Amino acid sequence: MNHVAYEQWMLYVKNELPEQVRMEYDDHLYSCDDCLELYLQAVDEVETQLPILTNADDFTNSIMAQVAKTKKSNTKVAFYQKTAFHYTIAAAMTFLFMSSGVFQSITKYVDAVQEPTIEERKPSVTEGLVNKTFAFMDNMKNREANNNE
Ligand SMILES: [Zn+2]
């Protein structure tokens, strides 16, 4: 197969090629470093053309749709789709962590450890769970001991 022109890679990235052509390009991409280079440039250019994200719900929905689509399709997944998928998941994870306040609570936890005297110390949920687990284990041990007698 001959090398693929940059314009063609642009179409490939935008998924605007017929299935047959797309699969040929897909195979070529695995075996040709020159075209891989062109393809990555095309990805860069298409990414800068993407609309700016304004609605978090739309963003989440589009990810879920993509996940569903990927799961459903038994056909060969294009190289760019795999890459875009992993990129999207990583972005989504970061976004979810940020919005769910996981990062914030970690910061708070670190503060609490560093300055335990400022606030009155309350038993945390984690502490309660740990205590319950220990109580449960003690219980098990006692039962075992009783059974052995
Ligand atoms: Zn090539």
Name some characteristics of this structure.
mainly alpha; binds zinc ion; 149 residues; Zinc-finger
Report on the structure:
It is built from seven helices and no strands. The chain is mainly α and 149 residues long. It has three domains: 1-50, no CATH class; 54-118; 121-149. Helix 4 packs across helix 5. The structure holds zinc ion. The site of zinc ion (ZN) has 6 residues, from helix 3.
Number of strands: 0
Instruction: State the share of residues found in helices, binned by percent.
Output: over 70%
Determine the N-to-C terminus distance: 79 Å
Number of domains as seen in the coordinates:
3
User: Mean pLDDT, nearest integer?
Assistant: 74
In percent terms, what proportion of residues is strand?
under 5%
Bound compounds: zinc ion
- Whole-angstrom Rg: 26 Å
Class by SSE composition: mainly alpha
Q: Which parts are unreliable, with pLDDT below 50 for 5 consecutive residues or more?
A: none
Q: With helices defined by DSSP (H or I, 4 residues minimum), what is the helix count? A: 7
Q: Helix and strand succession?
A: HHHHHHH
The backbone outline, from C-alpha atoms, is elongated
Largest sheet: none
Q: What would a concise description of this structure say?
A:
With 149 residues, this protein is an all-alpha fold.
How would the blueprint of this fold be written?
Blueprint: H1 6-13, H2 19-31, H3 33-49, H4 56-72, H5 79-100, H6 102-114, H7 125-148
Helix pairs in contact: 1-3, 2-3, 4-5
The protein binds zinc ion.
Residues 3-4, 28, 32, 34-35 line the site of zinc ion.
